[in-house]
Amino acid sequence: MRVLFYYRGSEHIGLESIMSYVKSKGHLVELIYEPALGDNGYIDIPWLNNFFYNDELVINKALRFKPDLICFSAITNLYMPIKKLARQFKKLMPKVPIICGGIHPTSLPEETIEEDCFDMICLGEGEGAMEDLLQRMREKKSYNDIKNLWVKDATGHIYKNEKRPVIRPLENLPNPDKSLFAKYGALTSRIMIMTTRGCPFACTFCVNSFRNAAYSGEVYLRQRSVDNVIADMVEIKKKYNPKKFRFEDDVFAFNQKWLNEFKVAYREKINLPFHCYVTPSTAKDEILKSLKEAGCESVAMGIQSGSEKIRTKLLHRRHSDELVIAAAQRIKKHGIKLVSEYIFGFPEETPEEMWKAFELNDKLDAYNTSSYIFYPYPKTALAEYSLEHGYLTKEDYDKIKQGYGSYHTSCWLDLPYKDEVYKFNSMLPVWNVTPKFLKPLLKKILKLKYGLIHKFIYVLSVPLIDFEEFTIRIKEMPHMIMQVRRALTNDDWDKSYVDAYIPETSSEYIKTNVKSKDKEFENLIPENILAKERLEKELKEKRKKEHFFHGKIKYNT
Amino acid sequence: MLVQFNLIDRNGSKISIEAEEGTTIKDAIMDKLSPGNFALCGGSCICATCHVYIAEEDINKLAAQKDDEIETLETNDINQTKLSRLSCQIELKEEFNNITVTMTIPRTLT
User: Is this prediction's pTM over 0.80?
Assistant: First the structure.
């Protein structure tokens, strides 16, 4: 079968894994990737993308590939452009089934499957479900009972199939295939890799707060064996010649036994500097010592809030200030650079509590500090709490479910100190690198009414969120832009591909019920629905204007 | 050799569990009940989601906690008492026959 995947943003290891698995089952896989330079969460100026590539290039590539199946992977913040493109694909290729997977449909299956552009959604891990789906499609048999999939049939009935057990061990999967992202120039010189799936913690603002609970009786967290990870990295090193590695695991170093084995093998066979994530409670002496011995250059540690009360009561992270400070000191003692991370705008958070993040951060001696705004991801414990306690309106929650805004620019909660959230968020990364003698000046700026100066500082803070990554991306951007254009116009898939499977005759082939949204269809929509749509559009425009960097930038607002 | 212990589950029901000597209490609970949000780290002593209370009359039968367990109990979001232990750190032994272990309920945001 000819399988077309689509992704936008940065390299995605989960998708690399599924593409690799699907390839290993004898299917022809192609990727359409958009770097989304104009609408990436930091800024929302989609027309900027048109300088580098355009929708026509994307759509034509899809049409030329002639897919049997189109697959989207969606996180909530990317859902809107994905839905828009899926509608265009459905209009142009109405007979090609479209599936959407990723954390967004996993969190919101009911809402996602209702979309007219999706024939199926995948909840949870996709490898097994994709294998079964493509096999049934090969055999021209019904696929409405495949576990992990919700499927819409010809009558509009939705088959909500049960979930399958998590994949165990992870070594059963082929290594993620980076080649398709590589041809778009999406791999930087600091290549991403993951050794785990899942997280041992259930912080209330994170998807793990509901995902772990959904897998009762199973341990969702799994880690690849050291041999498996190192073999993958040896190949990556040979093929892409990276300068550094970046472990994207939610918590990389938590198993001392694994780490003891890893540090020896990594030194011997890879020996490149790397970055990874730790938490204040896992940044123990022995773990940090092993990380350093392996070649760890920097760690990111989520502090999340400067207020111990917020951390304990709302985030379910019982990390005292002392624990955080001691962890930072241990990191420094072992010669590892610290990137501290914070989130502003939690329910009940006062400006005094926000200021505590600045005070606490001063004691950590962080190399870089990144800050974000609390984004109530659908179904997370803290999003539901915000809704129940009146911090989040149902209307706004519905907007979030559609993917509006981002954790860089949008404070969705109804807080009395909303301007403070924007101010503190924009200024902390800059505060961290400001010499001590200039800090009183910054403090004065912080006390000013939210305005132009803070927005300007926000622009300055963007590179500081992850300075190294920013530098790498800027340096490698011209190459990436060229590569994206080239990859969108080059049809370098295997032209001689013929599915080796010999189909049996069967009449069970499922028909999709997805309609293209054309003019004729729009004429059938009743006036009251159109009026509602118009109102929603007006509200959307209003919201865009209210949020910094959404739509036209008005510095004098 | 099988070791038997009593488990008070999250609903307050008392269950008798038998498991091979050397099995951790965490694994014995997983095998018998498959509870949700339990032992999320798989026994690496970091998440404290396998936190249990040991009956007062039985707590001294267990070996003292190691530093890792103490640290994990102190830095995770649980209601820690002097009877708190991580079930992933307790391997069943003959002398633990008939001890009583109470599961804890994960905290929710209210």
Answer: yes
